[in-house]
């Protein structure tokens, strides 16, 4: 399955570690459009992907039929194709996906923005 993958190349001197941005539920790579340009202007190779069923990524089922493990696998495949490994910035559900990925993998950096907790959102909603 082909994921939407937007890349902005650095302007001027390039930093050695790329940045990958991961969206939350009901969003796609498009939500980082401005930020990709800003990071590129500061010398970073900047990436954003749309998870399966989101944005312009291919989908073989409705978005609500995907599991977190499907999203973790999409993130794993994206990171595996990048050299060097990126710093990943993830928002909301994307933060949960990133935390799940980090259970078995290392990255040079990870940033969680208003992330779902690693135990999921149910305890939060019940509280």
Q: Count the beta strands.
A: 5
Helix content: 25-40%
State the helix count: 4
Structural class: alpha/beta
Distance between the termini: 38 Å
Which radius of gyration do the C-alpha atoms yield? 14 Å
Oligomer: single chain
Strands of the widest sheet, in order across it, are 1-3-2-4-5
The arrangement of helices and strands along the chain is EEHEHEHEH
Which word captures the global form? globular
Biggest sheet features: 5 strands, mixed
Defining key terms:
single chain; 127 residues; alpha/beta; five-stranded mixed beta sheet; 4 helices; 29% helix
Indicate the topology.
Elements: E1 5-8, E2 19-22, H1 33-41, E3 46-49, H2 68-80, E4 87-91, H3 93-102, E5 109-113, H4 122-126
Parallel strand pairs: 2-3, 2-4, 4-5
Antiparallel strand pairs: 1-3
Helix pairs in contact: 2-3
């Amino acid at each position: 399955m082909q994921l939407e993958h937007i890349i902005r190349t650095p302007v001027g001197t390039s930093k050695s570690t790329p940045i990958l941005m991961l969206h939350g539920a009901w969003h796609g790579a498009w939500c980082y459009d401005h930020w990709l340009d800003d990071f590129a202007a500061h010398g970073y190779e900047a990436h954003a992907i749309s998870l399966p069923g989101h944005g312009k990524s291919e989908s073989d089922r409705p978005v609500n039929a995907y599991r977190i493990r499907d999203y973790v696998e999409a993130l794993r495949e994206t990171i595996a194709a990048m050299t060097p490994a990126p710093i990943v910035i993830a928002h909301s559900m994307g933060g949960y996906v990133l935390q799940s990925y980090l259970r078995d993998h290392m990255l040079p950096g990870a940033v969680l923005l208003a992330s779902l907790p690693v135990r999921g959102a149910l305890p939060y909603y019940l509280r």
